[in-house]
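Example S7 (C-alpha cells).
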C-alpha cells in the first residue's frame, strides 16, 4: 500500500511530472498565442512594401544582417514561442514555394489574429471564427480568379519586356529605386539558362558573385561562372579550352596500405625521388595529351604537380566547394574524375574562355560559354559594403524565384494594394449575405485586407486614412485597378504605373496565412512537460544542444 503522503497531486498534476506548465482556456492559451503572433507580425509589418524599413538583426553567431526581407528576419530571430513559430513556418513555406511574399504572409496572419481577438472579446467562440475565416478564404480565392488581367496567362518567358513587367514589384519591394537596373540583369540571366521546357527552370542555375567596390551600375551578367579565386599557376588566360576536372585533387596520392622502404645509399634515395617525379610527370603528360588545356582540382594541388602543369602549359584552378565543383561541371559539361588519370574524350568539358580578371581589387576567374545551351549564368553584383551586397543578392534571388513562378503560371493581378481593396470590398458584400455568426468573422477577414494599403501608406509617410477612403471610393465607382502611387502619394491606375503582382504569389500568401491562423485559433491548451527554466529535454550529456 502506498501511504497517503506519497500520493501525487490531483487533476492534470497527477498525470505529468513535477515542474510541468499547463495553460488552458481563452485567457491563458488562445489570447496569449494571439499576442505572441501579433508581436511577430508587428516586427515584419514595417518592412512591407518598397518603402519598408530595414531591420538590424544580430544572430547567435554575432553575424549582422541589415535587411527588410521578412524571410531572413524571422529565420535569424530564432523565435521560441510555439504559436509564433507556426507563423514563421508559414512564411518559410511561402519563401520555399514562391520565393517572395513571406512578409505579406506573416503580416496578414498577424492582422487576422488581431481581428480574431476582437471577435473573441465580443463573445464569439474560436470555432465560429475558424468556420468564418475558412469560408472567407475560399471566397477570396474565387474573387482572385476574377481579378486576373485578361490575356496574361499566355506569356513568352523569353520576352524580356514581359519578364521585367512581372518581376518589377518583387525586386522593388527589396530595392526601391534600383529595380530599373536590377530587373534587366536578372531577366537576362534567367533567359540565358531557361531550358526548352520553361517549367523545368532551375533557380540554382543563376548564380550571384558579390564583389565589394564600384556601384550597382557596374554590375553585369556573365554567361558561365565567376569563381572568387585566382588560378594556381602562371597561366592566367586560355581560349577555347578543353577542361579536365579531378574531384580528388592533383597530387601524388598516398598508397592504400602502409609500407616501409629501406634505402641503403644516396643513389637509391635519388632514384626513389626520381621515380616519384617521373610518375607525376607521366600523369600530367597523359592529361595534356588528351587535349585538355585546363585542370580543375577539387582538393589540394601539389607543388610538383603544379610544376609539371606549368611545363605542359596547363592552366590550374582550385575549387574547394563540392557544390561549386558540381556547378562548374554543369557549366562546362565535364565529368568529375575521382583520381588523377588520363581522361576520356567524353569526360572533358569545354569553355570558350577561362581567364583571370581583376574586378575592384579582387582577382576572379571568369569561365565563359558564349555558345547557346550553357546551363549556368552569373550576376556579378558590385556595391560599397557587404551588407548592401547581401541585400542586393536577396533582391536578385526574389527576381529569379519570380521568374521560376511565372514559368509555371504567368497570370498577373493588379499590385499597389489595388487587389487587396477590391477583395475587402467584395468580401464585405459577401458577409452581408451570410446569416450565421460567422458573418462577423467574414467581415473582419475583409477588414484585415486594409492592413496592406494602410501599411504601405504609413511606411511611405502618407495619411493612411485618406488613402484607404479614396481607394474605396474609386473601387466603388468600378475602377478595380486603382492602387497607391507611393512616390506622389495619390491613387492611380496600376496599369499606368506598371505595378503588377503574380497571381500565384498572392494566392499562396493568403492561403498560408489563413491556414496558419486557423491552426493557432484551434489551440485551447498548452502543456509543457519540461520543467520551467530547467535543462532542455534535448540537451546532450556534454552540454551541447541538438539543432532544431
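Recovered sequence:
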Amino acid at each position: 500500500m502506498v501511504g497517503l503522503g506519497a500520493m501525487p497531486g490531483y487533476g492534470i498534476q497527477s498525470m505529468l511530472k513535477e515542474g510541468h506548465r499547463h495553460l488552458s482556456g481563452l485567457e491563458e492559451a488562445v489570447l496569449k498565442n494571439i499576442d505572441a503572433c501579433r508581436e511577430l507580425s508587428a516586427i515584419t509589418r514595417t518592412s512591407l512594401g518598397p518603402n519598408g524599413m530595414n531591420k538590424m538583426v544580430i544572430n547567435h553567431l554575432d553575424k549582422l544582417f541589415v535587411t527588410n526581407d521578412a524571410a531572413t528576419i524571422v529565420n535569424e530571430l530564432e523565435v521560441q514561442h510555439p504559436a509564433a513559430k507556426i507563423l514563421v513556418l508559414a512564411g518559410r513555406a511561402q519563401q520555399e514555394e514562391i520565393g517572395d511574399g513571406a512578409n505579406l504572409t506573416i503580416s496578414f496572419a498577424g492582422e487576422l489574429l488581431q481581428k480574431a481577438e476582437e471577435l473573441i472579446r465580443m463573445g464569439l467562440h474560436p470555432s465560429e471564427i475558424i468556420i468564418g475565416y475558412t469560408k472567407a478564404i475560399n471566397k477570396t480565392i474565387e474573387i482572385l480568379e476574377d481579378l486576373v488581367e485578361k490575356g496574361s496567362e499566355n506569356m513568352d518567358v523569353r520576352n524580356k519586356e514581359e519578364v521585367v513587367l512581372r518581376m518589377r514589384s518583387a525586386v522593388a519591394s527589396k530595392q526601391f529605386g534600383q529595380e530599373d537596373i536590377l530587373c534587366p540583369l536578372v531577366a537576362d540571366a534567367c533567359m540565358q539558362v531557361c531550358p526548352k521546357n520553361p517549367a523545368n527552370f532551375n533557380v540554382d542555375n543563376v548564380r550571384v558573385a558579390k564583389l565589394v567596390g564600384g556601384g550597382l551600375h557596374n554590375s553585369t551578367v556573365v554567361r558561365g561562372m565567376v569563381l572568387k579565386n585566382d588560378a594556381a599557376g602562371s597561366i592566367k588566360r586560355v581560349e577555347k579550352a578543353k577542361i579536365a576536372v579531378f574531384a580528388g585533387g592533383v597530387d601524388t596520392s598516398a598508397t592504400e596500405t602502409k609500407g616501409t622502404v629501406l634505402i641503403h645509399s644516396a643513389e637509391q634515395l635519388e632514384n626513389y625521388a626520381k621515380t616519384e617525379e617521373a610518375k607525376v610527370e607521366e600523369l600530367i603528360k597523359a592529361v595534356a595529351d588528351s587535349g585538355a588545356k585546363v585542370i580543375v582540382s577539387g582538393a589540394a594541388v601539389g607543388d610538383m604537380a603544379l610544376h609539371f602543369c606549368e611545363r605542359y602549359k596547363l592552366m590550374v584552378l582550385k575549387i574547394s566547394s563540392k557544390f561549386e565543383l558540381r556547378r562548374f561541371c554543369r557549366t562546362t559539361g565535364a565529368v568529375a574524375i575521382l583520381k588523377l588519370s588520363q581522361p576520356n574524350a567524353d569526360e572533358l568539358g569545354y569553355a570558350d574562355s577561362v581567364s583571370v580578371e581583376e574586378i575592384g581589387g579582387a582577382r576572379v576567374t571568369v569561365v565563359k560559354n558564349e555558345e547557346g545551351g550553357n546551363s549556368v549564368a552569373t550576376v556579378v553584383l558590385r556595391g560599397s559594403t557587404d551588407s548592401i551586397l547581401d541585400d542586393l543578392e536577396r533582391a536578385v534571388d526574389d527576381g529569379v524565384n519570380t521568374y521560376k513562378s511565372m514559368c509555371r503560371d504567368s497570370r498577373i493581378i493588379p499590385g499597389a494594394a489595388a487587389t487587396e481593396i477590391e477583395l475587402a470590398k467584395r468580401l464585405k458584400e459577401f458577409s452581408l449575405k451570410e446569416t450565421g455568426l460567422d458573418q462577423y468573422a467574414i467581415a473582419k477577414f475583409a477588414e484585415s485586407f486594409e492592413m496592406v494599403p494602410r501599411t504601405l501608406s504609413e511606411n511611405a509617410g502618407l495619411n493612411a486614412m485618406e488613402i484607404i477612403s479614396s481607394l474605396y471610393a474609386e473601387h466603388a465607382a468600378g475602377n478595380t485597378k486603382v492602387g497607391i502611387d507611393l512616390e506622389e502619394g495619390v491613387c492611380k491606375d496600376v496599369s499606368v504605373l506598371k505595378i503588377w503582382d503574380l497571381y500565384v504569389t498572392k494566392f499562396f500568401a493568403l492561403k498560408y496565412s489563413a491556414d496558419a491562423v486557423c491552426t493557432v485559433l484551434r489551440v485551447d491548451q498548452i502543456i509543457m512537460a519540461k520543467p520551467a527554466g530547467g535543462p532542455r529535454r534535448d540537451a546532450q550529456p556534454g552540454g551541447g544542444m541538438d539543432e532544431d
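Notes on this example. DSSP finds 17 helices and 17 strands in the chain.
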